[in-house]
Amino acid sequence: MTAQPFELARRLKGLPPYLFAKLDELKRAEMAKGVDVIALGVGDPDEPTPKNILEAMHQAVDRPVNHQYPSYEGMPRFREAVARWYRTRFGVTLDPAGEVLSLIGSKEGIGHIPLAFVNPGEVVLVPDPGYPVYEISTLLAGGEPHYMPLTRENDFLPDLQAISQEVRERSRLMFLNYPNNPTAATAPREFFEAAVRFARDNGIIVCHDAAYTEMYFDGKRPRSFLEVDGAREVGVEFHSLSKTYNMTGWRVGFVVGAAPVVQGLGKIKTNVDSGIFQAIQEAGIEAMTGDQSAVARMRTLYQERRDTLVAGLRAAGLHCDSPEATFYVWVDVPEGYTSASFSEFLLTRAGIAATPGNGFGQAGEGYIRFALTVPRQRLAEAAERIRKALSR
Ligand SMILES: *Cc1c(COP(=O)(O)O)cnc(C)c1O
Hints:
This protein has two domains: 16-45 and 294-391, Aspartate Aminotransferase, domain 1, CATH 3.90.1150; 51-289, Type I PLP-dependent aspartate aminotransferase-like (Major domain) (Aspartate Aminotransferase, domain 2). The strands form three sheets. It has a seven-stranded mixed beta sheet with strand order 2-8-7-6-5-3-4, sandwiched between helices. The protein has a three-stranded antiparallel beta sheet with strand order 9-12-11. Helix 2 (21-32) runs parallel beside helix 13, helix 5 runs parallel beside helix 6 and helix 12 (293-315) packs parallel to helix 14 (376-391). The chain has 392 residues and is α/β, with parallel strands linked by helices. It has helices spanning 10-13, 21-32, 51-61, 76-90, 106-117, 133-140, 165-170, 189-202, 231-234, 259-272, 278-289, 293-315, 339-350, 376-391; strands at 38-39, 100-103, 123-128, 144-149, 171-177, 205-209, 235-240, 253-257, 328-332, 352-353, 355-356, 367-371. Bound molecules: pyridoxal-5'-phosphate (PLP). Pyridoxal-5'-phosphate (PLP) binds at residues 43, 105-107, 131, 177, 181, 209, 211, 240, 242-243, 248, 253.
């Protein structure tokens, strides 16, 4: 029998189902009915990209030198700006030539890195709940995800000691992400130190996703994984301009750290893409080296929103920790509900779209994630609608 012409490859058919399909459908139905849905599902900054960055882009677009193919690894000045930003912010010194690589958004690098280091059947350690791309990129490379549960008892940090010898021996990569999406947890230095020891002892590459290091509150600045002794010998850090500078649509990020890892990923990329539009890199340079006051303003804005939503949810009888970082609030679903049934309840009884925790992995069951990417009055209204719906 010949295959049907449009039959999908096994690697695609083997991916987990998209858990939010039913919810997306419900949301569309509510909106079609005229319900004023408050969208707290997707974590995409609602504020515009700062003006100085737009200005740099306008100027760069007019320069013909920027209209040609960019270099694969990023303009030298872009990589130098990344290195300077890391030194200023984290006290981490990087060689812009060998330890920095531009990415078409950090998702692109996370999506490709298993192709460089994971053979079919080898294991990738993946946080559960977690950003779905860790699992998907592993599966697309033919690797096997091994889930590390993040539980409240463990402060949403993986229990590395619980990983069996057999799994350790088959593991090539470990994904970590702090400040964390979706739990909003941060990692203490001791955890990063333990991760370095674990990686070194077991010959595993650490891929730390640091997309939210600048979205912190109460002056508690998260650290870079690379600040820890030995980290740059075992791993890399993915970073992004998306969340820090309200640039999700621009697609610009980078990876930094262990040169062999950066180069392995670079080798994949030279074969599948041709770098980032130089005008966007110019805008990125301005973002990282120009006036940083917009970032501080965003932190204040998110912190006020956090305080409004957390207070409102608690007044509605829900339980949640007040996050120290990210723009998410990770909330326990009340007695008698699952993640799925509570998100359905919120949508149909309160007109609120939120993300069910089980969509991020099995260990996310029992939670729901709210994003702080709408104005404060909308968050206050959302909390009030929830209070009313739950007291009916
Ligand atoms: C948003 C997000 C990213 C992706 O950011 P881009 O740079 O826009 O691709 C990566 N990791 C996590 C955890 C995120 O939430």
